[in-house]
Task: structure prediction
Amino acid sequence: MTITQTDSLTLPALMEPDNPLWRYALACWQKPDLAETCLMLQAQGWSVTRILCAGWLGVNGRTFTGIEDAKVTEWREHVTGRIRAARKSIPRDHGPTHEFRSALAKAELQAEQTELALAWQTLYERNPDVASMHNCTTVIVQNLLSAAPLTTRETQPMTQITKLASLLAEHSQRSTEPC
Result:
């Protein structure tokens, strides 16, 4: 078996890991129904980062084009995805590897924070359009459809997407008016 060495990723010198998108993600993750739905969609090929970006843009009245910076997808594929795969390959209840699996889970969370920091850097410039719809949930539904993997856009039940949009809308970051 030959293992190929991958080159280091080129990352921005300055990143803001603790940004409004990260704080929105943390708030969303406190809602078990929302976290469970995101993880279920992740198992179907969705990116939770894209879901959170779609939700965050929606609660801020912006549309999501579905286009993200190449650094985000590269990080997701080469770092976050590989850490997640390593964690998932270790049985949850295997005592001798429990500590290692926990360390991978912590590393996965840090990788996700970096992924969201990379997304945060270009989110507004890649999604400049203000939504013409006034209903935040409707905007988030449209954003989620843009965030969906191409293979599942037509097969995902709209009731599930609408439910997810409602859950994401509950975590509005607007201070003056709810979504």
Residues 20-169 form one domain. The chain has one domain: 20-169. DSSP finds seven helices and no strands in the chain.
